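Attaching the record inline, Q. Sequence:
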Amino acid sequence: MKITPIDIAHKSFGKKMMGLDSDEVTDFLQQIAAQMESLIQEKNALKEALREKELSLMEYKERDQVLKETIATASQMADRLRQDAEREAKLIVADAQQKAEIITRDSRDSLKKMYQEVTELKRARMQFEANLKALAQAHLSLLEQGEKYMPQMQLPNHNIAQGPQGNTGRSTNVSPLSAE
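Structure, as predicted:
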């Protein structure tokens, strides 16, 4: 059976002869009851504090669990983001390499075309120079042939401005046929 401070305070004892001083017993029992009540209140306060601490501890454990889950989720997301970034970077690099290859190929093709055009221009220039030389030689040949068959006429050594016998500056055209 559990004894409470009220039980102690209201406990009565039987009397005997030469028994105990009832005032002292009552005072002592009241002191014990008061101390016991104080201890029970302290025990209840400690139980309440313990319950609050356990609730706080459970709350902290829940927060800790939530934080661990959040960190794990953040870590997974960071890993996914890193993997996505690496994959995207690889795609960008591959695309850049492909574009660079296309640009390089186009540049080489353009350079080939320019070399071909320069070669064609050189060939055309050489052909033009050869044709011009041939034309000049043909004209020289014609001139030389013309000199063979037609000797040059010697004009008299007069001042052309006055003309022979005082003409007014007009020269007379002498044809090669009339000079003979």
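Confidence is low (pLDDT under 50) at residues 167-180. The first helix runs from residue 5 to 9.

More tomorrow.
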